[in-house]
Design brief:
The chain is mainly α. The chain has helices spanning about 5-20, 40-55, 60, 70-80. Helix 1 (about 5-20) crosses helix 2 (about 40-55) and helix 1 (about 5-20) crosses helix 4. It is globular.
Length: about 80
């Protein structure tokens, strides 16, 4: 699956979670860059992405994710 497709999916999911239709993210976007992207909404994002991509995140995998690009890397690794 392409990075662009994964990025678009993450963006759509975040738009729903944060109820912010004007949200735009890129691979360099960090949670600190987005209003309301706190630890609870981060967990909600990960939980929402699991069935979407048919993957399962382990807690230790997600603690080191620093930006959207690293989340994409992790998703692509899980999809292999």
């Amino acid at each position: 699956m392409s990075r662009t497709t994964i990025l678009e999916t993450i963006q759509r999911t975040l738009i729903e979670i944060l109820d912010n239709n004007s949200l735009k993210i890129c691979e360099q976007t960090r949670a600190d860059d987005v209003a309301d992207w706190d630890s609870l909404n981060h967990v909600r994002l990960l939980i929402s992405l699991e069935p979407t991509f048919n993957i399962r995140f382990e807690p230790e995998e997600t603690t080191d994710v620093k930006n959207v690009g690293e989340l994409i890397d992790l998703i692509q690794k899980k999809l292999r």
